[in-house]
Amino acid sequence: PVQIHHPKPAPYLHSLPANPPPPTIPRPVGRHRASDPMDTGADPPRHRRLRKASDVRTTAAAYPPRNGLKQIVVEAKARYEAEKNALKLDGSYASRDWLYSFKDWRWKVCLLTPILQRYERWAMRRYVKRVNAFLLAPDNVQQRSIQKLRLQACGRSDFTDQWITEAIGRWGVEDLELVIDNSSWRYDFRLLDGCKNVRLKRLVLSNCYHRFAPNPLTFQSLTSLTLCKESLRMLHVLDILENCAQLVDLRLKDSGCRQPAFSIVIPNSQLKSLQLDNYNTVSVHLASVPYLETFACRGQPTIIRYGDVPRLRHVSLNFLQTGDNGKDDSSGSNRTYQLSKFFGGALPSLEYLVLQLRGRQMWIEPTAIPVRLNHLNKLFIANVPMNWDTIWILCLVAAAPALESLHVHVR
């Protein structure tokens, strides 16, 4: 596979010089031909002699970013406050010495921030230069086929639209992953409608979303789609799904903010697998997904309702009840859920059910399920907390008369 080298990360904070030299780019071992018009320092000549590049990964390896420094400062301050409260040293000399050392350390970090920013700019310039030399190559370069391409950038770039258009429309990328860190990007996929070499089958978008546009042809050939973070805005998701006629696998991951109720209505879709990973929504309604076979939901407890899903056989629910911070279960929550909240609506003929319900306190109400799981053959219940009551498990077993296999794991 073709690999595009990126700059080495900057040294640690304590070893940075006052005026650091620009980072050097490691050059691959091999013969260097000065007459090669494409030898810009971004790609070694041997890459251009390959007839097919099956896997290309490019990453903007930014030097210690500003967001990282801010996180370090916030964590250090939090540790200081926690230790001060734990030891109750508000008026002691130890507490004041700790505070003074923390302020002195933060002052040194502020002095190093301009140096780190300079390293970031150098890294992004060289990263853009390398990607341009590979994707925006002249027309006289030998035609090559790229099967998989992963672009990751720490921020926006004026060349992002050109990279996507050239990768999909010119080089025929079949598997594209576009990750934008610390920012978001909007791309109009209608720019690819006039391209004849579009073979895109799998698309992963993180902090990159599609501009509202009617019927882009690129989405009609997709079989796998993954949307992460800012790409998960409800209107953008529905706009994309309406045009994915051949979509088989859909994954929605890591929603940053609370989403409204998610109702999926795609009666003409071939979708067979749906996975919601930390989607952070109130409820999910599988209204009309006629070919859906597998459904998985992980994150905080979510109300599940079933509609027109006649082929759904495998359901996996992995819920962790958290506190208000949404990050850990140390504080717990007083809200409880009836077991029937996860089996609402017109329940399909489930055959395999996986449940992993966790939390500091028991948040499942041991009530009977009003519907019958007549076709359920296998039931797997994982990581049941030791301080939880098991009556809810008996209620679930009582609703499955055809159950053949039962596995319960207690931690």
Automatic annotation (TrEMBL):
Residues 1-59 are annotated as: Disordered. InterPro entries: LRR_At1g61320_AtMIF1, LRR_dom_sf. Coiled coil: none annotated. Residues 157-410 form the At1g61320/AtMIF1 LRR domain. It comes from the Eukaryota. PANTHER family: F-BOX DOMAIN-CONTAINING PROTEIN, OS03G0157000 PROTEIN. This is At1g61320/AtMIF1 LRR domain-containing protein. It comes from Aegilops tauschii subsp. strangulata (Goatgrass).
